[in-house]
Specification:
about 150 residues; mainly alpha; Charged multivesicular body protein 5; coiled coil
């Protein structure tokens, strides 16, 4: 069975460049050295896993900072555009327009009240009598036409 340290030591990866010299077993390999090989491999694997995790965290943090920079750039552009738009809008103009709208609505209400006035029509009108009179007039007009 081949020791994983020897396989790792022959790798061309720069991560193993320093460890390459210390990981190569001597020609006088003892059985106790072979027994420690899996434990060392697990330790190295854990170290490599931690390094990978740390690099991933740094990459994530870098991406977050880039996103924050893009957000700030967009916010600055929007702020500049809003400031430019606010120069064309005056609160006095808005207040004046609101006052004019209220005046127009008041005039409209007065017109509607005027149009809805009661012209001395008594409140106690017999609607059935009016309907009968209307039917009678309609019938008499129809007879004249024939």
């Amino acid at each position: 069975m081949k020791c994983p340290q020897r396989a790792a030591a022959t790798s061309s990866s720069p991560l193993f460049a320093v460890a390459r010299r210390s990981m190569l077993p001597s020609t006088n390999v003892t059985s106790q050295h072979l027994k420690g090989c899996p434990r060392r491999y697990e330790g190295q694997r854990d170290i490599l896993s931690n390094q990978t995790y740390n690099l991933d965290q740094l990459a994530f943090a870098s991406d977050r900072i880039k996103d924050a920079q893009h957000t700030m750039t967009a916010m600055k552009a929007a702020n500049t555009e809003l400031k430019g738009m606010m120069k064309t809008v005056r609160i006095e103009d808005i207040d004046s327009m609101q006052d004019e709208t209220m005046d127009v609505m008041d005039v409209s209400s007065e017109i509607q009240e005027t149009l809805g006035r009661n012209y001395n029509v008594p409140d106690d009108i017999d609607e059935e009598g009016l309907i009968c009179s209307w039917l009678f007039l309609d019938d008499s007009n129809t007879r004249r036409m024939n």
